[in-house]
């Protein structure tokens, strides 16, 4: 899958963010994500990506079914992402971010199926476009009524493709209109499922921070 650089898209966004009434973190949105993995979260013999003491046994105990796995993972991913990126964004923008997530899972609406077979990834190319992101943003429910929102719309996490694709998205909160968005794909990494598939999103956050720093110069 092609990695599209965000430099042209983010040009001028920094000045808009610093002038906005508020900069709002709307969370990582997994509501339209396709997650292609070998695990079903119900078979104790599936040890792919899982490490003793940190993965498989914990997953079997915690997750009764894929629906529960999806719910708790999206909550964990949002919490961990906020904890790792908030301070860095605030330092770059020199202002506080406001967290506005309607649920611990962010803007994510749980859907079925939650996970797809790893082997389907090559035969199911992504149909995600900018218009997909625009449609999702229009559905967001935020307490904040003005300012610029930032969401990481997750498109695809694929073990077979060995990448995760995310659309960092800046939008006008009042109008619910996308200001800038762009697809960025990064490699997974880590010793267990949760950390492995958080990595593409945290890598994208670092890319966005770099572009904002460049835009601020």
- What is the number of beta strands? 8
User: pLDDT average, as an integer?
Assistant: 84
The helix/strand class is alpha/beta
For this entry, what is the oligomeric state of its chains?
A: single chain
List segments where confidence is low: pLDDT < 50 over at least 5 consecutive residues. Answer: 1-8, 47-61
The largest sheet, given as strand count, sense and whether it forms a barrel, is:
8 strands, mixed
Number of domains: 1
What is the straight-line distance between the termini? 31 Å
Q: Give me the number of helical elements.
A: 6
Report on this model:
The chain has 217 residues and is of the alpha/beta class. The chain has one domain. It has six helices and eight strands; from the N terminus they run ααββααββαββββα. A hairpin with a 4-residue loop joins β6 and β7.
Comma- or semicolon-separated keywords:
single chain; 217 residues; alpha/beta; 8-stranded mixed β-sheet; 8 strands; 21% strand; globular; disordered N terminus
Short description:
With 217 residues, this protein is of the alpha/beta class.
Please give the structural blueprint.
Elements: H1 7-10, H2 13-19, E1 23-29, E2 34-37, H3 56-62, H4 66-93, E3 97-99, E4 116-117, H5 130-137, E5 148-158, E6 163-172, E7 177-181, E8 184-186, H6 193-216
Parallel strand pairs: 1-3, 1-5, 2-4, 2-5
Antiparallel strand pairs: 5-6, 6-7, 6-8
């Amino acid at each position: 899958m092609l990695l599209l650089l965000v430099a042209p898209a983010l040009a001028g966004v920094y000045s808009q963010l610093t002038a906005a009434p508020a900069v709002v973190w709307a969370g990582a949105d997994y509501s339209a994500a396709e997650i292609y993995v070998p695990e079903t979260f119900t078979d104790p013999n599936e040890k792919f990506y899982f490490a003793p003491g940190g993965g498989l046994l914990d997953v079997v105990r915690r997750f009764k079914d894929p629906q529960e796995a999806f719910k708790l993972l999206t909550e964990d991913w949002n919490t961990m992402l906020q904890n790792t990126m908030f301070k860095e964004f605030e330092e770059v923008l020199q202002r506080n971010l406001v967290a506005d997530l309607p649920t611990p899972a962010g803007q994510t609406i749980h859907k079925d199926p939650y996970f797809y077979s790893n082997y389907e990834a090559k035969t199911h190319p992504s149909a995600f476009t900018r218009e997909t992101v625009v449609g999702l943003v229009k559905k967001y429910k935020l307490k904040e009524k003005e300012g610029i929102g930032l969401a990481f719309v997750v498109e695809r996490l694929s073990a077979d493709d060995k990448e995760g694709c995310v659309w960092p998205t800046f939008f006008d909160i009042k109008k619910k209109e996308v200001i800038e968005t762009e697809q960025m794909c990064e490699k997974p990494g880590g010793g267990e499922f949760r950390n492995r598939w958080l990595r593409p999103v945290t890598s994208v956050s670092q890319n966005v921070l770099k572009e904002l720093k460049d835009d601020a110069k």
